[in-house]
Amino acid sequence: MKNIPIIFDLAAKIVPKYAMAGCQIGDSFEKYRPHICHFYHEDRNDIYDKGLVACIENGWINVYLSDYVRLCFNQNHLLCRMWFWFPEFTGEIYPNVFLGNLVKNVPYPLYFDTIDYVYYFQDENNQIIEGIHFMTQNCATIDEDPNTIITGVCMYNFENAP
Fold first, then answer.
1. In the chain, helix, strand, coil percent, each to 5?
2. Across 3-7, 43-47, 76-80, least confident range
């Protein structure tokens, strides 16, 4: 399980909540993305534009950006959460399981006011796993091995986003 990325529950700056008004299941994320934040993947930018609104439940808007990445937007609190899950870790995909709860030494969700960088994930074979990682100062490894390195290539700085 080397180099499996740390998984966090995140808060993001979301510009104004009216951007979510009238949101319907099946809507393209592209419709809302300009009002929220700009996700960029060097080789596959399209997967983040074409994510679909999968469900709306208790004020949460769930957008599936890929097989591994889900975004949840809260209309009332302007909160954005991002989930990552990996079949090789769970055995299969459980969309409702937030693996951050399994990260050692992180007994509660971590929230942040800003988003810093977008990262590639790499597995133990240095294969790229599509996804986004937000670097923080609160790091822990799933297996508590200090030699486990969270690797990635910084692609985009949100503070300088157009």
1. 15, 20, 60
2. 3-7
Residues 98-145 pLDDT 10s: 333 222 222 223 322 223 333 333 444 544 443 333 333 233 333 333
Q: What are the Cα distances from residue 40, in Å, to 22, 26, 30, 44, 123?
A: 25, 22, 12, 8, 20
Instruction: Tell me the CA distances in angstroms from 53 to 77, 151, 158, one per residue in order.
Output: 18, 30, 23
Nearest to 9 by CA among 63, 79, 78: 79
Longest dimension (CA), the chain: 47
For residue 115, the surrounding DSSP H or E stretch is none
The label of the residue with tokens 């971590």 reads: 110
pLDDT in tens, 33-59: 544 433 333 344 444 455 667 777 666
Q: Where are the domains of the chain?
A: 17-160
Q: What angle do CA 40, 131, 81 make, to 5 degrees?
A: 90
User: In 13-160, which residue ranges form alpha helices assigned H by DSSP?
Assistant: 33-36, 46-49, 87-90
Q: What is the pTM (predicted TM-score) of this model? A: 0.36
Dist. CA 90–CA 41, nearest whole Å: 25
Listed in sequence order, the residues at least 6 apart from 67 whose beta carbon sits closer than 8 Å to its beta carbon are 93
